[in-house]
Amino acid sequence: MTTVLNVELGERSYPIHIGAGLLDDSALFASLVKSEQVVVLSNEVVAPLYLDRVRAHFSARRCEVLVLPDGEAHKTLESFGQVMGFMLEKRLERGALLVALGGGVIGDLGGFAAACYQRGIDFLQVPTTLLAQVDSSVGGKTAVNHPLGKNMIGAFHQPIAVIADTDTLSTLPARELHAGLAEVIKYGLIRDLPFFEWLERHIDALLARQPAALAEAVQRSCQNKAEVVAADERETGERATLNLGHTFGHAIETASGYGNWLHGEAVAAGMCMAAQLSARAGWLSAAELERTLALIARAQLPVAPPPDISAATFRELMLHDKKNIGGRIRLVLLQGLGKSCVTRDYDDALLEAVLRREPAA
Amino acid sequence: MTTVLNVELGERSYPIHIGAGLLDDSALFASLVKSEQVVVLSNEVVAPLYLDRVRAHFSARRCEVLVLPDGEAHKTLESFGQVMGFMLEKRLERGALLVALGGGVIGDLGGFAAACYQRGIDFLQVPTTLLAQVDSSVGGKTAVNHPLGKNMIGAFHQPIAVIADTDTLSTLPARELHAGLAEVIKYGLIRDLPFFEWLERHIDALLARQPAALAEAVQRSCQNKAEVVAADERETGERATLNLGHTFGHAIETASGYGNWLHGEAVAAGMCMAAQLSARAGWLSAAELERTLALIARAQLPVAPPPDISAATFRELMLHDKKNIGGRIRLVLLQGLGKSCVTRDYDDALLEAVLRREPAA
């Protein structure tokens, strides 16, 4: 069964196609791709699995392929320059389409390349990881990392469409499946209590990769993301709640070196820290905190940061976060399950206690 | 006397302030700059002349300054990375303002940096060259060069305002003044016959840097640019006529190595080539071609490309141009003085004759 959601952004609206077997849906690709020139960007892990099937849809067009090494360590300005050089060497014109086939790194890097090549060309997201399907492929945030901070160099550039083939999740390494579940759980926590409760009931089915459960998780996640993005494309308000756990998480990723902790793992530990701060502030009950930590743990995800990151290091790195205004760390906190806010209005001593991993009173 | 023009782009509308002495207009800067954090980007030639006067307006704010080497050779992805690193080291937040103080290189590079830093921050254009005041500071095109083509990596990102102090033109090297006049003449050629005729009468006054003549040239140029940009921000139609001479010109710049020919010099020679092709096609009379070449020559600008660029090299480089569709070189041609079109509908043999510098029949 195929689902089509729409991200409502006026002239920049686009569909998200979700379903099993979509990579072989010639009619779908034909309906979306009009350009005579196509460049497919992928990585060394995904390309052997899916590149030929995707490329088959472009046999009647000029199709160039660039395969990069896998991993967050390659989401850099250098890789961006490499993509630009490749596209120029191949003489791709302004009417060309970039297809990002892979996970979040390929999607973010490919989207940024599409945003900047000749001041902007179209791109199509074909996410092959759970994390990319439920989060990074939707919403038009594109970026590369800088040694001083994650996603610090980027652009808002919406794709023309997203094609999420849930069959690709069957080949996903377990660790990446779990990492993707962090972002799935996030939607429940920040704005969708019924989905959180559904996840409590279906987490084992998701871990067992039952197709129907995975498809529903992707759909409900994308539905949440599409609603938030439609309401606040440029993140001046509600969209910032999608960053639950991310300010802590980015600090974990940076301190650990990009690629050692997966993004979803860092976000999972970060969400636990945000939940703990919310609980210390009295906004989340002990039982709600317990349910949050339990679901994240059942998803095989870390519930605490690496012990070697000091509170001072956390603060140093969190101050670099894009969400900051006026030097004070802005955080997404929970006000019960399924409700969240973006705030700087918390007791700094409570944040310090969380950063120091002090036992709760 | 100060003139204020407005670039009408809905939510992205902004004013262009033109006048003598604006760099010292504290009230103007105060009215435009609300950010607590300011980063001024300038170069080694402009900074000693004007940086202190501009920085004085930000004494009550945090103000960081980055001074780059001068010249087109520094409009690169490497310089872009350097600006990003600087801003991250200084912990500039998303609410920061980037002020681009300098010529076209600083404006284009600074604008692109502002477009991408944390996915976009505000920027203010303070152009100090004639070329930047009449062309590159207005319209939101930002970019850096790639060895395979000029302005190939960039974004559309409109400034919050443009402050053009015509007094700065008094310190401009003569060669740069002339280069700026190429873009001024362009507006007359493509869409404003009365302005072309005004330029025929006032070119000597402009070369003598008479302030009233310079101010009028800047105003009438910006008025033309603002109208074109308002009608076609993303260059899907009329805006492409602003590229008169640029496809030839970019090839000259690339073939000569960035920085050996100034952009305006290359555009001047390119406009002469476009006019010659237009004349060969019968769209421009011999007398109109003569007036075009004569005005460009009187502005102390080249009327022909360097002799060592072969027709084959021209074609090779022109095929890389962003304006191409379907492998055929799209050009801006003249249909009389003050009228232009963007077309691929010309006899290729006539283009070849122009590229080979064959004498007109």
Strand-helix topology:
The structure is a homodimer of 361-residue chains.
Chain A (H helix, E strand, L loop, with lengths): L2 E5 L6 E6 L6 H7 L4 E7 L2 H10 L6 E7 L8 H13 L7 E6 L1 H13 L5 E6 L2 H7 L4 E6 L2 E8 L4 E5 L8 H18 L1 H15 L3 H21 L14 H11 L6 H18 L5 H13 L12 H8 L12 E4 L5 E4 L4 H8 L6
Parallel strand pairs in A: 2-9, 3-4, 3-5, 5-6, 6-9
Antiparallel strand pairs in A: 1-2, 7-8, 10-11
Folded structure, characterized:
2 copies of one chain form a homodimer. Chain A is an alpha/beta fold. Chain A has 2 domains: 3-171, Rossmann fold (3-Layer(aba) Sandwich); 175-355, Dehydroquinate synthase-like, alpha domain (Up-down Bundle), CATH 1.20.1090. Chain A is 45% helix and 18% strand. The first copy, chain A, has 13 helices and 11 strands. In chain A, the strands form 3 sheets. Chain A has a 7-stranded mixed β-sheet, with helices on both faces. In chain A, strands 7-8 form a two-stranded antiparallel sheet. In chain A, strands 10-11 form a two-stranded antiparallel ribbon. The first copy, chain A, is globular, with a radius of gyration of 20 Å. The first copy, chain A, starts with a strand and ends in a 6-residue tail after the last helix. The interface between A and B is large, with 37 and 37 residues.
Quick description:
Chain A is of the alpha/beta class and 361 residues long. Chain A is built from 13 helices and eleven strands.
Strand percentage of chain A? 15-25%
Instruction: Determine the CATH superfamily of the largest domain in chain A.
Output: Dehydroquinate synthase-like - alpha domain
Q: Specify the number of helices of chain A.
A: 13
Query: N-to-C SSE series of chain A?
Result: EEHEHEHEHEHEEEHHHHHHHEEH
Low-confidence stretches of chain A: none
Structural class of chain A: alpha/beta
What is the CATH topology assignment of the largest domain in chain A? Dehydroquinate synthase-like, alpha domain
Overall pLDDT of chain A: 95
Strand order of the largest sheet of chain A: 1-2-9-6-5-3-4
- Number of domain units of chain A: 2
Task: Supply the CATH class of the largest domain in chain A.
Answer: Mainly Alpha
Which two chains have the most extensive interface, and how many residues on each? A-B, 37 and 37 residues
Assembly level: homodimer
Please report the distance between the alpha carbons of the first and last residues of chain A: 49 Å
Tally of extended strands of chain A?
11
Shape of chain A: globular
Gyration radius of chain A (Cα, Å) is 20 Å
Q: Work out the helicity level of chain A.
A: 40-55%
Give a quick account of the main beta sheet of chain A: strands, pairing sense, barrel closure: 7 strands, mixed
